[in-house]
Amino acid sequence: MKKTIKMREMLNNQKGIIKRVSATGDMGRRIREMGMVPETPIQIQGRAPLKDPVAVKIRDYVLTLRNNEAGSILVEVEENP
Amino acid sequence: MKQKIIIALSGNPNAGKTTVFNAITGARQHIANYPGVTVEKKYGTIHHQGYEIEVVDLPGTYSLTAYSMEEIVARDFVINEKPRLVVDIVDASNLDRHLYLAVQFKELGVPLILALNMVDVAESRGIKVDPDKLSEQFGVPVVPMVARTGKGITDLLDKVVEQAPKSPEWVNAPMSYGMDIDSGLDRVSSIIEKSRFFDKKYPARWRALKCLEGDSQIIGLLKKDPDLGKSITDICDDITKHSMNTMEEETEAIIADHRYGYIAGITKKVVKRKIELRLNFSDKADKILTNRILGPIIMGFILYGIYSFTFWASELPLLWFEIFFDALKNLVATFVPSGILQSLIVSGVIDGVGGVLGFVPLIMFMFFAIAIMEDSGYMARVAYMLDRVLRWFGLHGNSVMALVVSGGISGGCAVPGVMATRILRDPKERIATLLVVPFMNCGAKLPVYAMLIGAFFTKDKARMLFILTLISWGFALFAAKLLRATVLRGPTTPFVMELPPYRAPTLRGLLIHTWERTWQYIKKAGTVILAFSVIIWAMMTFPGLSEERIQAFDQNREEVAIAFLNQQTSPRWIQDKGELKVLNQLYHGLSGEENIEPKAQRHEALLEMARAAVWLERKNGETASFEMEEKFLEAGGRFLKYRQQMTNIDNLQQQTALKGTIAGWMGTKLEYITRPLGFEYRTNVALVGGFAAKEVVISTLGTAYSLSDVDEDKTASLSEKLKKDPAWNPLQAFTLIIFTMLYVPCMATVVSIRKESSWKWATFSIFFNLLVAYGVSLVIRQGGVFLGLGG
What we know:
heterodimer; A: 81 residues; alpha+beta; SH3 type barrels; six-stranded antiparallel sheet; 6 strands; B: 791 residues; alpha/beta; Rossmann fold; Helix Hairpins; 5 domains; two-stranded antiparallel sheet; 34 helices; 7% strand
């Protein structure tokens, strides 16, 4: 079973596929430019010591973004990781 | 005649662009600023196969939209300067994202070459890119290379020379974004083409695309014509509404989608993967280096390591600089007769400029260490780990290095610290950072602390210094929060940052990096700082004592000398003032300051006397190693007493002179304001002088407190003096320490702040810091007195 959750809710090392990026404006554009577009596979790499920002493996590199920004990204993940 | 062509190097940050640029141009690089912005423009020239190629290193960008200053600069350069070719450097191990920028260049129509960099890294990760196929699919020449080792650089230049004559005209390759958007683009571009603002520099369709992407700069340009702007924004809104209805996506999302879709179509054909995604070295390293517990601990050690390394490595060169400037001063003193001119050159020019240049080794090593952190990729991790903390104070993860460089571990310099704020994108976060870095404990404040701690907090020196470091962080961070809540109010910028893979930096890259920044620091010393230090020198010199006052002091000295001569019992060894002079010289010679042999037989007695005087001054209850006649000892003692009297007169004269200068006058006037802090005119004069450089605080205090020449080993005597002065107590000392920590940044820093922002902010920093310093010191002093600590 698959379900769609926000990226900020993902656990460390969890994998998923981006379904939608709802951020708009400069930030939305930047997130997409960095390769966060629908159907892209990602994996959570880790979180900073204070649990924010989050590091995500995408397209063969590691991108960090704040939970705030990660909240605007919907990801399809396995129901029972 | 050689043909000259201009090419631009472009690419994502961390694509190895700087390495390629260094490999092509070597040391033949120049740096300028793009007009009106602090983004650096680097360029260099190379001759290849009969061509003179000027290479311009564009700032690293992920895209060509107006997200950051760098991106605007990069695209404006390409559009306005029309380089013959753009070389886009793409990372073979991460091709998808790197091609995103290349697609936009193709849309713009600029003649393009792809430099497929880091093929070795890609292969080690099981990723193989076929350059010929990529060239065929993408429709531009592709040169595979490993810039770190220099492999492929010549091929690239060959390709540039081969392509250059072919492609003077731009041919834009429109991409399809689906029917809805394409038709919208057609409508917008036809309107733009008809407009009188259409200058053909930008392809119309590309402009239309930027409008749909919501690019503020391009829309702003079009809005110069209100009708045009209106009709275009109407169409854009229309399309957005439509796409939201039909596909539930923003227009810009659809555009990005299509680009990545197009890229995926290409990479599917040209990239072969041996293995599925697995943890590479960087991923494994990050498991430890950014670990919740280990990460911050290791970071602490690394930052501390940088601090120790910098101070350890620069210790000797700093000494050489000091020796050099001292020698220079002596040289001037020898060839320029003493007087105003000599004082100007020695105290105004050499002390001022030398004070700044003297820090060059320290700064160079600090920059070297920082370059290692940057080039290796660790800096991005520091920003990542600290972002959450700094965000609370209205700063950004990237602010941390500026704070550390400025003295976050105590001992640093705010000048490179201010320069280090360049990596911050948001102007408000950047200005907030550069306004608070002067609060950190830079190396020049340490002597002031050391002296006052030495006098009043002898018991726990180390702990006191540690507390002061914490205090300065506290003030810097809370001041940032205050600024961000008031004059620099604004949203926090997003933290969307790449964590680049760890890489071993190249020595060449490190050296170029270090030198560039050090040179900027040096340039400052030669210009503005020279002017400022002359002004401060003049303030502390003029108007000086009147003729009569000087004569009065000379008269005084004369009387003391005559009294000393007359005091002699028989035999009178010293006949006249000429011989007194000889005695003085002999005394100096013996105490190691000058080396003078007695010229005449008659002077033997004087030599004995001088010897006795030196011995009396230095004795620690020992017996003389040579025979000392009682009569010489007695005479020597008298001579010492005479010298003491003379020194007192000199000091008094110096003090009176200082009080009579402009700075002294200011210091006295400032007492009205500083009285609640307990500072009297001498402290004020020192603080005024400290604006030149914080080191001046200690030397001026020395002068003002009658120690004609306060150097390192005599700092202790200033300590002693203040300890005995009834006006001074631990509370007073602590107030001065805090005031010194917080008040006006030194002029070198103010100049840097101006350079990185504007005169407005530079002036603001002076008044803001003064206000904070005054407020805090007032609370400490008055609170302390209230609690009865002022006793």
